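User: For my dataset I need records formatted as: sequence, then structure tokens, nothing else. Please produce one.
Assistant:
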Amino acid sequence: MSDIIIKNLYKIYGSDPHAYLSKVKNGMSKQQLQQMHDHVLALNDINLHIMPKTFQVIIGLEEAGKTTLMKLLSKTIEPTDGELSVNGTTAILNGQCNLFENKTVLENILYGIDEAKTSKAIELLDLVNLLEYKNKYPTVLKKGMEQKVGLIRAFIKNPDILLLDECTQYVNESTQEEILNMLMNLHKEYNKTIVFISHNIKETLKIADRVAILEDGSLEQEGTPSEILQNPKTEHIIGRR
């Protein structure tokens, strides 16, 4: 299995988050919690089941809770309350690709990976027109190129679940399109469960099997792209199309 099960998940930031958990469960809003108790309600009673091999997009505006959810999925932070089951190995990639500057592009891709995958790495570099850079260092790469290298590295590690946090955030529209096409092709080839964090409804509709919409830490709506567009539960979803 490579699914993710989230049940009644809460995350509160502050000096004593558990002291205010019952207040939140009894209806205290994010704004009230911050104004009255100087704590931040990042995620509020999230319930979501991401099925194996699904391309699940999580979308929301600033401070919607997307980054907190990704940190919970990658187990870099713990929830305040609720259940979170990530069934399988994970690899995470964000907008800051963090390639090793003292290693070549190919060495970056194969870092910590069996060298038997060298031919596959070269094949993927060729696929995205980066083969000429395989023995060069990341300092010569543009941002979009770095992201492509990072994606190849993430996929070739062969985790069960890929966590992609705003990995098209810092590139122009044409490069974004290239990365999304690359993602869809790699998803078809590797058949992985993918969680893709985004703030862009346009790219969401292009790549998603399912879409979850966060707003102020709550899950507003979840479904297929067509279900969301045909029956949006909030006006701002229509406005972001």
